[in-house]
Amino acid sequence: MILTTTQALLIALAVTAGAIVTRFLPFLLFPDSRPVPKIVTYLGRTLPAAMMGLLLVYCLRNVDFAAAPHGLPELISIAVLTLLHLWKRNGLLSIGVGTVLYMVLVQAVFV
After folding, report:
1. Is it true that the peptide bond before 73 is cis, omega within 30 degrees of 0?
2. Angle 38-60/72-88 helices, nearest 10 degrees?
3. How far is residue 22's CA from residue 65's CA, in Å, rounded to a whole number?
4. How many Å apart are CA 44 and CA 41, to the nearest integer?
């Protein structure tokens, strides 16, 4: 599908407006002068762990544990990622190392 210049510009403006609204809306809804509602605080504590669980299930949904390599690259990467995160408590480092390790395992080790 080829877009005209006007269509491309309108799409870029819509995406920009959406990004700006999502960045500034929390500051408008929850100013410093008012306390943050308890439900928002609760969701802020629980949603990150729920999203990690959801991503884990999503990443493992097509793994065939009955066929070789029996999910070993995924399980090894998850174990290393988990241990590294428990040790360093750095999400970016954990995800980066886990991703690189997985790529090495599936492209060089379990070929």
Report:
1. no
2. 150
3. 40
4. 5
